[in-house]
Amino acid sequence: MGYGPTSKMLVNLVDGCAQAKNVVPGSVMWTLDGDRTVQTTVVDVTAVKGRQAVDVVTDHMTFTAGSDLLLLTPDGWRRAADAAGTTVAWTHAKKLCRERLTIRPGYEFGYFVGATCADGTAGKNYVSLVVNDEAFATRYATALAACTGLPARLEAVTRPSGYLKRDLPGFRVRVVSSYLSDALRHYVGGDAHHMRQRFPRVVLRDVDTFEGFLDGYIEGDGCPIKGWSGRVITSANAPFLADIAPIIGARFTPRAKARGASRLCVSDRWGSRGTFTPEHHPLNPPESSWIQVHEVRPRPALGTKPFTFYSYRLAPHPTFLVNGHLAREAW
């Protein structure tokens, strides 16, 4: 009985997608280790003939394989023939070949995250900041480069002013990286819109990182308070401010929606209050998720030509990806 993908199904090699029949010993394949993508090497390839296959219909595609191919579900490994109605582990195949950054914690990382939360944009495959203040843009570019290693530079741009009814000069910092964009969206709960983003608890790794976050966020959405050693944050995202308040030992009362944005005062001596508790959260974004299997359809071979199913023995990880879907051969 067949126990792997059919000959023309795409599997994910490090060098790019390939049909299952073209994988040879020594090929390096992508797989998943928890929520991270890792590499594994093909030690041996086995081909088996059979006349019965199944079409597995998921949220993203339909693939054909032997009924005994194992797919990972939240309850463990399950035969492809029995996977209908479950969810299976998956990663976006088109993102496998992208550059994975080494994100470094510290003050610069906190500043970058804070400034992006205040005034930045996390697009589908880019991160950018557009502001009027050249010094702010320069500090943002420096922090971004320091914590990610990506080259960041300033561009002179113009931006419309609804109040003045004319374009104003500004400065933009923009880097193209879907990995960094995914990371930022993960930090703020999946939705990077300024009114729906959550407080990024990843900046609570240590006081230095959190100080950087406060400086970056306040530079975008805050200002110093005259006559008092502190600063004030102004934002309409009240839940975001409510999460910051206990960390700095401050009281916070959101304003009614009809009265506009809420304000949170940040004392320069907040650190002496002993309210900061470090938390460890991963810096790298998860690269896997669960997707629905809508249907599994029996697929008999047509005519006299049987299917050819391919199975791989791999090391150090025994699993591989069928167009992003995590699989392994039957035990």
CATH secondary-structure class of the largest domain: Alpha Beta
Low-confidence stretches: none
Number of strands: 20
Overall shape: it is: elongated
CATH topology of the largest domain: Endonuclease I-creI
Which structural class fits the helix and strand makeup?
alpha+beta
The CATH superfamily of the largest domain turns out to be Homing endonucleases
Secondary-structure element pattern, one letter each: EEEEEEEEEHEEHEEHHEEHEEEEE
Rounded average pLDDT: 93
The structural domain count equals: 2
> In DSSP terms, counting alpha (H) and pi (I) runs of 4 or more, how many helices?
5
- N- to C-terminal distance: 13 Å
CATH architecture of the largest domain: Roll
What can you see in these coordinates?
This protein has 331 residues and is an alpha+beta fold. The longest helix has 15 residues, at 134-148. The protein contains five helices and 20 strands. The protein folds into two domains: 10-97 and 287-328, Beta Complex (Endonuclease - Pi-scei, Chain A, domain 1), CATH 2.170.16; 107-273, Roll (Endonuclease I-creI), CATH 3.10.28. The strands form six sheets. The protein has a four-stranded antiparallel β-sheet with strand order 6-5-17-9, with no helix packed on it. Strands 8-7-20-19 form a four-stranded antiparallel β-sheet, with no helix packed on it. A four-stranded antiparallel β-sheet has the order 10-11-13-12. Strand 5 and strand 6 form a beta hairpin.
